[in-house]
Amino acid sequence: MAKTAPSTAELPKGDTRWFTHDRFGMFIHWGLYSQGARHEWLMHNEQIPVEDYERQYLKRFDPDLYDPEAWADAAANAGMKYFVITTKHHEGFCLWDSRHTDYKATNTAARRDLLRPMVDAFRARGVRVGFYYSLLDWHHPQNTIDDRIGPYRARSEEERARMNKGRAQAKYARYMRDQVTELLTGFGQVDVMWFDFSYPDKDRPADFTKGKGRLAWESEKLYKLVRRLQPSVIVDNRLDLPGAWDVMTPEQFQPREWVTVDGERVVWEACQTFSGSWGYHRGEADWRDTDQLIRTLIDCVSKGGNLLLNVGPTGRGEFDARALDRLTGIGAWMKRHNRSIYGCTEAPAGVRTPEDCRLTYNPATGRLYVHVFAWPYMQLYIDGLGGKVEYAQFLHDASQLTLGLDDWRSHQAGASNRPDTLVVNLPQKRPDAAVPVIELFLK
Ligand code: GLC
């Protein structure tokens, strides 16, 4: 790929103020692959030709139990403030009634637009709206077959040329712009536009493959279109346009610290799954438990980031029992602890995170939150906070926690009397919360 840097540095940016306040969103991967129930990449994994895939899944997609109100309730009750839905994933199938393709929800057994009622239901609960839109498209007849991603593999340059006969990448790029125009003009305010993904550096001549990035997708035009139609929408970083994005999106990986680009801290959002697959996966058994997911959310916020947690609804249109169990558990914790998440970010410099803990901080209220992952023996020590805290309490029940070691303890061997260390006295029994949180009112 040519390295011509697009002149995107001066392009306007999205409004991330609500985003860095709200911190917690729901990703939803739902499409024809939900019926395969063995990973949303099954078309690629099993190299299923377009006709076979379409024949098996399109007409049979019959989400008779689809209840967008129930989905929106599950998200809102879990404390999620925005959602991002796969309007089109790599398979190419569209959840809305696009004028530019027949490969869409209205031509399934559902016979209706499945996106609109979802948008309405979430929005009615104050959950902001995000659209995931796949740049990859394994169904579109104009999208060139240049790589090993998707159902087809060329074994020679000639074969690749043959496969691409009649295909014109520019027509596919225009199709994407037409569809994105529909998405950004037909559904009211869209808060997040999540493009996925680019791989410009994946040229492998030995495999007769080429990467795809901003040139193939015509990303610059796409980005300008998005900005024109919805100036404040938040755009992710996967268009392969340096400087023209609002949020970095590490996936299935937890950053060790606040994400930086060229040395600067940036807005970031980790997207994570319950079990590995994004689409509904019947057989995946190693699901993360509720406590682990809550700790992941806390971990993100303690490093100045967001969490976008994924649900893969079934082909009949339900969140399965395992997902509902996790969401309900997260919601129970969030009900009493969301104050340590919303509006929060990394702790001020100089405050040392105690062992087995994560800190978050709300700069607007001046409160610091200690999330205790493993319960200590009576006292919690925080270096850098000595003399700086006015009052302390548990967050879940607003019960006071006293500060400072009493005389008897402070004279024993091994006691720390450093003046810059804050000592919080804890009950010996860990409170009954997935992750107990101590709220500290700074002076
Ligand atoms: C990857 C995968 C995809 C998933 C996405 C979410 O790029 O291709 O299946 O939708 O990650 O981040």
Detail the topology: elements first, then pairings.
Blueprint lengths: L16 H6 L1 E5 L4 H4 L5 H4 L4 H8 L10 H10 L4 E7 L26 H10 L3 E7 L22 H7 L5 H17 L6 E5 L17 H4 L1 H11 L4 E2 L24 E2 L2 E2 L3 E4 L17 H13 L3 E6 L9 H17 L19 E6 L4 E6 L6 E5 L5 E6 L12 H4 L10 E5 L11 E6 L1
Parallel strand pairs: 1-2, 1-9, 2-3, 3-4, 4-5, 8-9
Antiparallel strand pairs: 6-7, 10-11, 11-15, 12-14, 13-15
Helix pairs in contact: 5-6, 5-12, 8-10, 11-12
Could you walk me through the main structural features you see in this protein, from its secondary elements to its overall organization?
There is one protein chain. With 443 residues, this protein is α/β, with parallel strands linked by helices. It folds into two domains: 333 residues, Glycosidases (TIM Barrel), CATH 3.20.20; 86 residues, Golgi alpha-mannosidase II (Immunoglobulin-like), CATH 2.60.40.1180. Helices cover 26% and strands 17% of the residues. It has 13 helices and 15 strands. The chain has a seven-stranded parallel beta sheet with strand order 5-4-3-2-1-9-8. Strand 8, helix 11 and strand 9 form a beta-alpha-beta unit. The longest helix is centred in the middle third of the chain and has 17 residues. It is elongated, with a radius of gyration of 24 Å. The N terminus is likely disordered. The structure holds alpha-D-glucopyranose.
